[in-house]
Amino acid sequence: MEKWKDRLTDQLCTAMLSLDTKEEVYSFLEDIATIGEIRALAQRLEVARLLSDGYTYPQIAQQTGASTATISRVKKFLEYGADGYRIILQRLGEHKEE
């Protein structure tokens, strides 16, 4: 198991999996994180989506307000990470088609 994965992070993941609705997720996020942290996570996901759609760094920076450092970091994880972004982006795409 990786160093950051432990009983507490397992509990967090299990808690997130137990949420049934978008409203429950909003409530949980509001209680567990600051608005700034939530917005930063949302911004990174949007950066990942735009990178996957072939947008350039300047286009992404203009649309999201993300720094080039953030865009580069997201790109690195898209290419060499644990595939979390790809899984989420694929599932978000599937929900759009419904």
Give the topology, please:
Elements: H1 7-17, H2 22-32, H3 35-52, H4 57-64, H5 68-80, H6 84-97
Account of the protein in words:
The protein is mostly helical and 98 residues long. It folds into 2 domains: 1-32, no CATH class; 35-97, TrpR-like (Trp Operon Repressor, Chain A), CATH 1.10.1270.10. The chain has 6 helices and no strands. Helix 3 (35-52) packs antiparallel against helix 4 (57-64). The chain is globular. The mean pLDDT is 95. This is Trp operon repressor family. Pfam families: Trp_repressor. InterPro entries: Trp_repress (IPR000831), Trp_repressor/repl_initiator (IPR010921), TrpR-like_sf (IPR038116), YecD_YerC (IPR013368). GO terms for molecular function: DNA-binding transcription factor activity; sequence-specific DNA binding.
How is this structure best summarized?
The chain is mainly alpha-helical and 98 residues long.
Q: Quickly give the CATH architecture of the largest domain.
A: Orthogonal Bundle
What would the CATH topology of the largest domain be?
Answer: Trp Operon Repressor, Chain A
Order of H and E elements = HHHHHH
Biggest β-sheet strands, sense, barrel = none
Summarize model confidence as the mean pLDDT: 95
Low-confidence stretches: none
Could you state the CATH homologous superfamily of the largest domain? TrpR-like
> Helix count?
6
Helical proportion?
A: over 70%
SS content category: mainly alpha
Choose one word for the global shape. globular
Instruction: Report the sheet-strand fraction.
Output: under 5%
Using the coordinates above, name the CATH class of the largest domain.
Answer: Mainly Alpha
Radius of gyration: 15 Å
Ends distance:
36 Å
* Count of all domains: 2
DSSP strand tally: 0
